[in-house]
């Protein structure tokens, strides 16, 4: 499945290229099938089947209905709800559980069965109650992530392998506000490297050079993020086939408007003569 970009109508941004399931070839170019096209095809298919609902009206489906059907069937067949939450992209698991609301008892039992199987495979001490001291230690970790320079992205419970040489650490999170401070650090490192070279401190020269390279990398990351935010978004150039289709559509609209205006004008003239 080729990877192609797609436009998010809600966020008004272009998504990065990915192997989209619903795509087709237009003028030799792979493109994502729009939601309107999928909905229109779905209505046409249902109309051809002649299936009706309980009231005898033609059965209708929306693309989102199949999302609900997929999540419901997946949970009923043993997929853990929190995995279905990740697949659906929900921020709250209650949203995922509401998709299976038509069979709430089955969904709840499936989730409980999964938890029971998981707990049977894991050590019992992992499911003990958390003490107040442990909870305060966990919350305090996120407060200590705020450093004098940026924030530390180190995971909870892990040790600092860089011995708090934060400027070298790849998980140091810096923003554009830290650029002046990083420039000061870079100038200071240049001065310390020059001093170490004069004194013949080769070990210090090596370590300071590593810190200097890391500082330059952090500054480059900030500059790259700023350029990406300020750079225009390339939406692509329309192909010849697209231009022809748009020209034909515009011509059809113009003809329709001209015909409508002429009809209205004639009707108005007839009314005046009648009066």
Strand tally: 6
- Basic shape: flat
Rg calc? 31 Å
Strand percentage lies at 5-15%
For the residues shown, what is the average pLDDT?
A: 75
Order of helices and strands: EEEEHHHHHHEEHHH
In total, the number of domains comes to 3
Count of alpha and pi helical runs:
9
Class from helix and strand fractions? mainly alpha
User: Which sequence of strands runs across the widest sheet?
Assistant: 1-2
Could you give a quick summary of the protein structure above?
The protein is mainly alpha-helical.
Please give a structural write-up.
- The protein is mainly α.
- The chain folds into 3 domains: 1-58, no CATH class; 62-124; 138-227, no CATH class.
- Helices cover 58% and strands 8% of the residues.
- It is built from 9 helices and 6 strands; from the N terminus they run ββββααααααββααα.
- The strands form 3 sheets. It has a two-stranded antiparallel sheet.
- Strand 1 and strand 2 form a beta hairpin.
- Helix 7 runs antiparallel to helix 8.
- It is flat and about 90 Å long.
- The protein starts with a strand and ends with a helix.
- The model is unreliable at 261-275 (pLDDT under 50).
What are the key terms here?
275 residues, mainly alpha, 3 domains, two-stranded antiparallel ribbon, two-stranded antiparallel sheet, 6 strands, disordered C terminus
Topology at a glance:
Elements: E1 4-8, E2 13-18, E3 23-26, E4 29-32, H1 35-49, H2 63-76, H3 81-88, H4 93-99, H5 104-121, H6 132-144, E5 151-152, E6 172-173, H7 179-199, H8 202-230, H9 240-274
Antiparallel strand pairs: 1-2, 3-4, 5-6
């Amino acid at each position: 499945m080729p990877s192609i970009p797609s436009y998010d109508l809600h966020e008004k941004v272009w998504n990065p290229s990915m192997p989209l399931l619903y795509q087709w070839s237009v003028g030799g170019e792979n493109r994502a099938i729009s939601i309107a096209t999928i909905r229109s095809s779905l209505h046409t298919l249902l109309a051809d089947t002649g299936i009706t609902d309980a009231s005898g009206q033609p059965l209708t489906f929306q693309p989102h209905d199949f999302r609900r059907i997929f999540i419901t069937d997946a949970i009923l067949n043993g997929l853990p709800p929190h995995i279905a939450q990740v697949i659906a992209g929900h921020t709250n698991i209650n949203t995922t559980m509401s998709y299976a609301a038509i069979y709430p008892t089955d969904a709840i039992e499936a989730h409980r069965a999964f938890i029971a199987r998981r707990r049977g495979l894991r050590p019992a001490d992992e499911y003990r109650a958390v003490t107040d001291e442990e909870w305060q230690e966990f919350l305090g970790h996120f407060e200590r992530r705020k450093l004098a320079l940026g924030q530390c992205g180190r995971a909870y419970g892990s040790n600092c392998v860089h011995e708090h040489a934060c400027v070298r650490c790849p998980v140091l999170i810096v923003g554009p506000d830290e650029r002046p401070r990083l420039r000061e650090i870079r100038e200071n490192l240049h001065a310390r490297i020059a001093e170490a070279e004069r004194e013949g401190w080769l070990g210090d020269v090596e370590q300071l050079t590593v810190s200097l390279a890391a500082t330059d990398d952090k500054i480059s990351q900030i500059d790259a993020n700023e350029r990406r935010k300020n750079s225009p978004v390339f939406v692509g150039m329309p192909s010849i086939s697209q231009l022809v289709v748009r020209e034909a559509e515009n011509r059809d609209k113009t003809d329709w408007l001209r015909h409508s205006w002429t009809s209205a004008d004639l009707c108005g003239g007839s009314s005046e003569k009648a009066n």
